[in-house]
Amino acid sequence: MRLLGKQEIEDIAVGAALLGTGGGGDPYIGKLMALQAIEEFGPIRLLSINEVPEDALVVSSGMMGAPTVMVEKAPSGQEAKKAFKTLEQYIGKEIFATYPIEAGGVNSMLPLALAAQLGLPVIDVDGMGRAFPELQMVTFYLDGIAASPMVIADEKGNVNLLTTIDNVWAERIARAATIQMGGSVMFAIYPMSGRNLKESGIHNILQLEEGIGRTIRLAKEQNENPIREVLNLTKGFELFNGKVVDIHRKTETGFARGTATLEGIGKNKGEKLQLRFQNEHLIATTEQRLLCVTPDLIAVLDEETGLPITTEGLRYGARTVVAGIPCHPKWRTPKGIATCGPGYFGYDVEYTPVELLVKKGALLG
Amino acid sequence: MLRLGIDVGKQRVDCIVMDEKIRMFYVSTRSVIKHPLSGMKEILEEMKQQGIRLSDIKQVIISASSEYEEGLRESEAVHVCAIRIGSSQNSLPPFYEVTDIVRETVQLTCVELSGGHYVDGSPIQDLMMNEWNEKMDRAALPEHATFAVTSAFSPVNPEHEQTVAQWIQKKFGEGRAITLSYEFGSIGLMERENAAILNAALSSVIPSLFQNVKQVLRQYDIHAGIFLSQNDGFLMTYERAISYPIRTLHSRIANSLRGASLLAGREDCIVVIVENKRLYIGMVEEGIPKLRWSKRDIAGMYMHVHIPEVVMIDNIIHGASDEVLERVYQATQRFQPPYEPLPIVFVGNECSEIAGRFHEPWAEVIQPEYFSYASAIGACMAPVGGWIERMYWLSEGTGKTQVIEKAAAEAIKEAILAGAEERSIALQSVKVSPLAYVPNQALRIQVRAFGNFA
Fold first, then answer.
1. Residues of A with CB below 8 A from B441's CB?
2. A269 touches chain B (CB under 8 A)
3. For B268-301, what is each residue's pLDDT tens digit?
4. Which segments of A167-308 does DSSP mark as H helices, in order?
């Protein structure tokens, strides 16, 4: 067990933004909630998966809906408390610990704040190893673990307990209810045994997020290149060095969809990169070739500071490094690719691992 | 018709008198000794001796990049009543993360009321008069308290903030300073609340800072409109500015960018500002500084402010070393378009050395006359402007076009309130963006409107 204090929270927030691949919402409010919870209740207990008993009940916590709405509602922690209570009553067992559903943005931070408020430990495991927009896009789904029984709760006191026939239905019903409940809710989801979490989850993810944040912070302090250090840590590749020259955002559907065009600088001078996003960055291509595609991670980093840039924060003139990071091997199975590969998001491209794409590019060049 | 520009910096005060064709009649620089405006009388006396007809001055433009903390520390009793209207109780307190100095100076009374709105603008719950009366009686506020009112989703529907403002006036009299958070636009209850509280605190301080200015001006037969520079470089009347002091804290960069463009006679250019051992590199497009919404740390708290997009290079100890020149070059490249590079204009009192050594094979490099007065000049020549940021919920009968028109009308109203002449008003930068992660009909719209002095 480790104790997380304020510096760790600050570092995790930076790492969460990077693994959020442009989406996941601004971790800022989650970070503040975690910091305040530490002040009030003391440091947060972080457990490695090996410290979790095999038969213990573990539940993921976080938010669903628009982070923009959540920051307006100013959640208090009461919602999550109710959600956990309801789930405990239904299952008839006490919850041992909570864990984040995803690595990225606000949902990396919320379980930390909620754990402190509920007096529970947090387990260093998640279900994505990155951020994705839908509830069934987790490694648990690949292993046939059900999202339900799940609970969503709002700040008014409404609590919904759902039992669904599969995880896609869980996503559909919960998403519709979320809109009725004002656009953002807190959830308690994917209740399972410690054994299942160990077999199916992605281990040491908070440790990785903290490492990313710390690496960027220290590299800046020591005047080293933060991007190079981060890529070493994540086994990632620098795909493109470029300046944003055009951004198109489609507003019709209400989702943050769009395309950014980057003009190469430095070693990429003369080339152009197209970056397509739907909340998260999903596919990066030049005129000649594919550079990286979901479920592998595409992170856009500020060339100077090494800090990640969100899809909302992408602006004309920004000088960036686009990095590709291999996703967890579980995503590279046929079911993994069907769940959150290019086809699911409507791109007519075949998934190829980023390291192979990088190698191919090197052969051609 | 003359304009008097007073540019209050951290270390010095620049004073200029010019006409609208940028002909300079008077320039002076003084170091700040006590109160930034303490030297006013001497300066006006000197102008008179130089033969300037002070009664010809029709506008006085003050740009103060003064420190909010200074102002707060000097004043004795600052008390803000922060009223939060929403459905959730006991979440993060207001002013979380504020700097110690501000926390110590600003007395805070927090009151939570039931109410607020949903993302679609419909009410969560009605405000309750008896809850209000009961909680305010219990709060026992001092005479000098000012108010900051923040309601959930007020950028979509400000009704509850406005109602509470009326209640405050009824209960405590007309004279109390009231800040409503929706006027600061951004989504994010806590950021808006912090901005509103800081604004409410400053609004009880700022009037005393400028108290004497009007009086002194009148003594010297100057009957001019007084304007203050906003963070985005546009002006607003003094009367309006005292209600929005937080909008006037960071105008210096925007003013320097505009001033550089005017002095160099280049509507589109890249500007390098060198002062106080710092470099700022930004851009001017069609005479207007390129702005961006950014999260800035103000008094320790993150807030959304609309300020110029600049690259800052800090702590230039060795002047124009090769390393500094290379970094300046790289920073200018951030703004250069792919073809036909823009001219690069150097301003600021410390720019000469770097400008002299800076060579760019493809772009024109300019160091204009009066380079060290760029900020004061830019402020004097700025249009009067206002902006709004609102959120709208689209429904049948309320389409995108209608809400954009609605937002534009509100921005025009803001510009008129800031002191712009109605017929001269033009719109700039309408930005429309959707919300992520929910298929919905919410649009955020930001609009700026500006015009000439009324």
1. 254
2. no
3. 999 999 988 889 999 999 999 988 777 777 888 8
4. 167-180, 194-200, 205-221, 226-234
Q: Given CB atoms, is A104 within the 8 Å cutoff of chain B?
A: no
Average pLDDT on B419-445 reads 79
Per-residue tokens: B451: 């015009």
Class in CATH terms, A233-364: mainly beta
Residue A60 to chain B, least CA–CA distance (Å): 19
Which stretches of chain B sit within 8 Å of chain A by CB? Answer: 86-93, 96-97, 118-119, 124, 152-153, 187-191, 292, 302, 309, 311, 333-335, 338, 400, 432-443
Residues of chain A with CATH 3.40.1610.10: 2-203
- Taking chain A (365 residues) in consecutive chunks of 10 residues, what is each chunk's mean pLDDT? 93 94 83 89 94 97 86 80 95 97 91 91 96 92 95 91 94 90 91 97 96 94 89 95 85 66 90 91 92 96 87 81 96 96 93 92 59
Q: CATH 2.40.390.10 in chain A, residues?
A: 233-364
How many angstroms from the chain centroid is the CA of residue B57? Answer: 24
pLDDT score of A365: 44
Query: Can you tell me the distance from the alpha carbon of B391 to that of B120, in angstroms, rounded to the nearest whole number?
Result: 9
* Angle CA B446–B451–B453, to nearest 5: 135
Phi first, then psi, for residue B278 (nearest 5°) are -130, 150
Please determine, for residue B232, whether its predicted confidence score (pLDDT) is greater than 80: yes
Q: Say if A253 is an interface residue toward chain B (CB within 8 Å).
A: yes
CATH of A2-203, one of 3.40.50.300, 1.10.230.10, 3.30.565.10, 3.40.1610.10: 3.40.1610.10
Question: Over the stretch B314-341, which tens digit does the pLDDT of each residue have?
Answer: 877 777 788 889 889 988 988 888 778 9
Contact between residue A99 and residue A197 where contact means Cβ atoms under 8 Å apart: yes
- Phi then psi for B34, rounded to 5 degrees? -110, -100
For B90, nearest residue in chain A (alpha carbons): A76
Within 10 Å of residue B76's Cβ, how many Cβ atoms?
A: 8
- pLDDT (tens digit, 9 = 90+) per residue, B98-123? 888 888 889 999 999 999 998 888 99
Q: Look up residue B414 and give its two tokens.
A: 């803001």
- Residue with more model confidence, A27 or B404: B404
Give yes or no for A243 touching B (CB within 8 A).
yes
d(CA B104, CA B437): 40
- Pairwise CB contact (< 8 Å): A66 & B124: no
pLDDT at B66: 61
pLDDT tens, position by position, B36-48: 666 778 888 899 9
Q: What are phi and psi of A310, to 5 degrees?
A: -80, 165
Contact B189 A156 (CB under 8 A): no
Tokens 């109203």 identify what position? B413
- For B116, nearest residue in chain A (alpha carbons): A73
C-alpha A305: how far from its chain's center? Answer: 21
Determine what percent of chain B is predicted with pLDDT higher than 70: 93
**Number of Cβ within a 10 Å radius of residue B93:** 13
Q: What is the ipTM of this complex?
A: 0.80
Q: Which of A28, A68, A101 to mutate to test the interface with B (most CBs of B within 10 A)?
A: A68
> What's the CA gap between A18 and A209, in Å, rounded?
8
Domain spans of chain B, in order of start:
2-68+246-380, 76-201, 384-451
Query: Is some CB atom of chain B closer than 8 A to the CB atom of A179?
Result: yes
Question: Nearest CA to CA, how far is A349 from chain B (Å)?
Answer: 24
Q: Say what the alpha-carbon torsion angle B319, B320, B322, B327 is, to the nearest 10 degrees.
A: 90
Question: Residue B250, SS3?
Answer: coil
